[in-house]
Specification:
Cobalt-precorrin-4 Transmethylase, domain 1, 3 domains, 294 residues, 12 helices, 19% strand, flat, binds iron/sulfur cluster, four-stranded parallel beta sheet
C-alpha cells in the first residue's frame, strides 16, 4: 500500500507559535496560566497542555464575568495574579481591554495574519466604510475581527447570504475574509457584492497555510484511492479539507487520532493520501502514517 502525505500538513505557523508561547509561559510563570478559550481545536494537544499546567477558560463565562463586573470608574480592577494567553484566533478590542483589566499578564499569541485583518477593518471602518467578512459568524476569529470594526459589519458565508446583503450603495465597502475560508468561494462572493456596490476594496486575507493545504489536498485526493483527513472535531480548517477532498475522492475519511483508523477499511486500496488541518500536531500524522504502513 502506497501512503503519501501532503507536503504541508499539520501545525501552521500561527498555531505552532501560540503553542510555543503557551509552553514558554508555563515554564516561566510563577502563577497559573490560562488560555482564553481552547488554544487550538485539537483534543490531544489540549490534553498535553493541561499536563503542563495550561488550562483553557470558557470564553462565554469569562465574557459574562467581564461585562457584569466592569472596572469601577477611576479605580482599576483588582487583577488576578495569573497569566492569560490570547490564542491565534485573536479577540476583539473590547475583550482585549477587559482581559488587561482582569489579569496581571496578558500574552497576545494572535497570529500575525489575523492581526493584519484587525488592522484593515479598524482603519477602513474608521474611514466610514461598510465591512463585509466572508466566513462563519460564530467562529471566534470572525467574532474577534468584528470586535475591531467601528460601526456595522456583515458576515456572509454563501451566495444566498451575499445576494441578501442590504448594503448602502453610496458608501464604500471593504471585504475581508476569515483566514480559513475557501479561496474560490471568496472570489465568487466578492463578485456578487461588486454588483451591489460600485466602490469596493477586497482584501484576500485567506492565509497561505490554508491555501497551500487546500490546493495540495485537492491535488492529492485526485491521485489516490482513499484520503485521510486528520483534525480536531471542532477545527473548521480541517473540516474544509475534508469537504475539498470528498469532492475529489469518494473514499475520504475524517480522523481525530490514529485510534479512529480502521485498517480493515483501507485494505482494499492501493494508495492512500494523508493531509491534516493546521491544528493537528505532527506526532498524530506520524502515528497514522505508521499505522497505514504496518
Ligand atoms: S491558519 Fe494561517 S492565519 Fe490561522 S493561525 Fe495558522 S498561520 Fe495563522
Amino acid at each position: 500500500m502506497k501512503v503519501i502525505t501532503a507536503e504541508h500538513a499539520g501545525f501552521c505557523f500561527g498555531v505552532q507559535r501560540a503553542v510555543e508561547e503557551a509552553e514558554k509561559c508555563a515554564e516561566n510563570a510563577g502563577s497559573e496560566v490560562f488560555t482564553y478559550g481552547p488554544l487550538i481545536h485539537n483534543e490531544s494537544v489540549i490534553h498535553d497542555l493541561e499536563e503542563k499546567g495550561i488550562f483553557a477558560v470558557e470564553t462565554d463565562l469569562e465574557e459574562a464575568f467581564l461585562s457584569e463586573n466592569p472596572a469601577t470608574e477611576g479605580r482599576t480592577r483588582q487583577k488576578r495574579p495569573n497569566t492569560i494567553i490570547i490564542r491565534a484566533h485573536g479577540v476583539g478590542r473590547e475583550t482585549e481591554k477587559r482581559l488587561k483589566e482582569r489579569y496581571e499578564h496578558v500574552v497576545d499569541a494572535t497570529c500575525p495574519f489575523v492581526k493584519k485583518i484587525h488592522k484593515i477593518v479598524a482603519e477602513h471602518s474608521a474611514a466610514g466604510e461598510q465591512i463585509v467578512i466572508t466566513g462563519s459568524p460564530s467562529h471566534p476569529e470572525v467574532i474577534g475581527i468584528r470586535g475591531w470594526v467601528q460601526g456595522d459589519s456583515y458576515v456572509i458565508s454563501n451566495e444566498q447570504e451575499a445576494n441578501a446583503l442590504d448594503l448602502d450603495a453610496s458608501r464604500k465597502v471593504c471585504i475581508v475574509s476569515q483566514t480559513t475560508f475557501h479561496f474560490n468561494k471568496f472570489k465568487d462572493l466578492v463578485e456578487i457584492v461588486k454588483q451591489k456596490v460600485y466602490d469596493i476594496c477586497a482584501f484576500n486575507t485567506i492565509c497561505n497555510a490554508t491555501e497551500e493545504r487546500q490546493r495540495e489536498a485537492a491535488q492529492l485526493a485526485q491521485e489516490v484511492d482513499a484520503m485521510l483527513v486528520l483534525g480536531g472535531e471542532n477545527s473548521s480548517n480541517s473540516k474544509k479539507l475534508f469537504e475539498i477532498c470528498s469532492q475529489a475522492c469518494e473514499n475520504t475519511y475524517f480522523l481525530q487520532t490514529s485510534d479512529d483508523l480502521d485498517r480493515s477499511t483501507l485494505l482494499s486500496f492501493d494508495s492512500i493520501g494523508i493531509t491534516a488541518g493546521a491544528s493537528t500536531p505532527h506526532y498524530i500524522i506520524e502515528e497514522v502514517q505508521k499505522k497505514c504502513q504496518k
